[in-house]
Design goal:
alpha/beta, Purple Acid Phosphatase, chain A, domain 2, 2 domains, about 35% helix, Calcineurin-like_PHP, signal
């Protein structure tokens, strides 16, 4: 009997030791950033202020856009040619120190709470293309954020260029991460953040109806759209985009790359009209920063691509 008890105790001890070793190995593997990579990660802050007369408090919003996360590790069988292309895109989306967007996101998501934000705006193209691995990497970072996140997707967030997947499944998996409605609403006591999802496509009639209901709240609106809007009074952004993007004005507007249909034109008229509650527009897409007046009341802030190590910081105050 004593021998049986002694053997059982010994066996239990060995099991506990093996379990501890496995746990230590897992914990060591979870740290994917080396010390040198952490030291190489830097942020260049682009600070802007939006003034809304009459609001009592001050708010801080962080803006991240065009990060283009590329996760190269996968258990899926993919052709070598595709692997090589994915690897090339991974290497192309890196800051001046050579830190790729995937590693930048792991580091940046650890820093976000230190800024004391009231919300985080993800203004499109956070991943370079849809894949379960890219979404999982994005989600790992989002899980660290303790404030509301407004994530307006664009073509890269939905793009299935390197994986065969139906659009319904993609949208379902996207919705599991963040609100994936056509129009996203985040309310604050003094103003509203309204996100236009999938802004590389035409506005839908359902989206237009949702906007009309939001307008009825009669609160100031900060509009988030990945694709910028063309100004009614200034051709500066139009010309700059054409200069840097092969003679293409990658904006929504007349004679632009994104030419509005009837429904989208109604949306633009709602945003830019005299009775519009919109006080500012936040966008990305162009991979360069620009600030422009859309009309005599609305300023548009185009933020540079975050894969370059850029972070937008917006202060909203009276």
């Amino acid at each position: 009997m004593k021998r049986n008890i002694s053997f059982a105790v010994l066996l239990l001890g060995l099991c506990m030791m093996l379990s501890a070793c496995r746990s230590q190995t897992k914990m060591a593997g979870e740290e994917s950033l080396s010390d040198s990579q952490k030291e190489a990660c830097t942020l260049e802050e682009d600070r802007k202020t939006i003034r809304i007369p009459g609001i009592k408090d001050s708010y801080r919003l962080l803006v991240i856009n065009d990060l283009h996360i590329v996760e190269t590790e996968t258990e899926r069988e993919i052709p070598k040619e595709t692997k090589d292309e994915i690897q090339a895109r991974y290497e192309s989306f890196a800051d001046t120190s050579g830190v790729a967007s995937r590693e930048q996101w792991e580091w940046l998501s650890d820093q976000i709470q230190d800024y004391g934000p009231d919300a985080v705006v993800l203004a499109g193209d956070l991943v370079d293309f849809y894949s379960p691995e890219n979404l999982e990497t994005l989600k790992d970072g989002l899980d660290k954020i303790e404030v509301p996140v407004i994530y307006t997707r664009a073509d890269h967030d939905y793009g299935t260029w390197y994986i065969e997947e139906d659009r319904k499944t993609v949208k379902k998996q996207e919705a599991a991460i963040c609100d994936n409605s056509r129009v996203i609403l985040q309310e604050f006591p003094d103003f509203l953040i309204v996100g236009i999802n999938n802004s590389t496509s035409q506005m839908t009639k359902a989206g237009l109806r949702a906007l009309k209901k939001i307008w009825e709240k009669e609160k100031p609106v900060i509009l988030i759209t990945h694709v910028p809007l063309d100004s009614l009074t200034d051709r500066g952004l139009y010309e700059e985009s054409k200069k840097l993007w092969g003679d293409r004005a990658l904006l929504w507007g007349k004679d632009c790359y994104y030419e509005p249909n009837e429904t989208t034109q109604k949306y633009l008229d709602m945003v830019l009209g005299e009775d519009s509650p919109v006080v500012a527009v936040i966008s990305g897409h162009l991979h360069f920063p620009y600030t422009i007046q859309l009309n005599d009341r609305i300023t548009e802030y185009v933020f540079d691509a975050s894969y370059k190590g850029k972070l937008g910081i917006l202060t909203v105050s009276g």
